[in-house]
């Protein structure tokens, strides 16, 4: 039976040997890389000054969102960094008065993440792969399910850091960001990105495996 592993082998250093058995191929993360309507607004904003820290928790609702957003805004200010906040399903309308922060609903990871200094996210498989493909260090603030696995992976690869979302404080954000903003993290992240399976290769490889299985090969 065919069991396509829709993520990159580089995302899971030291994975169990049985995952590499025949019939369980790693094809890389599958993504359409669809553009977002706000990309044309965000890219010029990024180009105006230094690359920002990206903060987004995907489709995860935060209750209440104000506390964690206030912490990341303050942490970025302490570090002298700009901040791009992707709100997802969370209402962040109260935050509209910071010169160093831009708020958006969603962006294309493929277009925006390579232009950022660090990606702070929840550790979803898709976002983790997008950050790795972008060659940008990650700070994963994980909540549940498989997210601790991806956090452990970026730590093992030394291209990021991870922390349980409920344990996050402003002090921990400053400390974690200071650590992964170091040049060696960016260098390692770029090296890993060069080894990742491209989106085109992922889709093509997955299709080939499915077609071969359908033909009984």
Explain what the structure shows.
By secondary structure, the chain is α/β, with parallel strands linked by helices. 40% of the residues lie in helices and 12% in strands. It contains 8 helices and 6 strands. The chain has helices at 39-47, 66-79, 109-112, 125-134, 147-156, 170-180, 183-195, 199-214, and strands at 53-56, 83-86, 101-104, 118-121, 138-142, 160-164. It has a 6-stranded parallel sheet with strand order 3-2-1-4-5-6, with helices on both faces. The longest helix is centred in the C-terminal third of the chain and has 16 residues, at 199-214. It is globular and about 60 Å long.
Structural class: alpha/beta
Beta-strand percentage range: 5-15%
Calculate the terminal CA-CA distance, rounded to whole Å. Answer: 11 Å
The geometry reads as: globular
Protein topology:
Layout: H1 39-47, E1 53-56, H2 66-79, E2 83-86, E3 101-104, H3 109-112, E4 118-121, H4 125-134, E5 138-142, H5 147-156, E6 160-164, H6 170-180, H7 183-195, H8 199-214
Parallel strand pairs: 1-2, 1-4, 2-3, 4-5, 5-6
Pick out its properties:
about 220 residues; alpha/beta; six-stranded parallel sheet; 6 strands; about 40% helix; globular
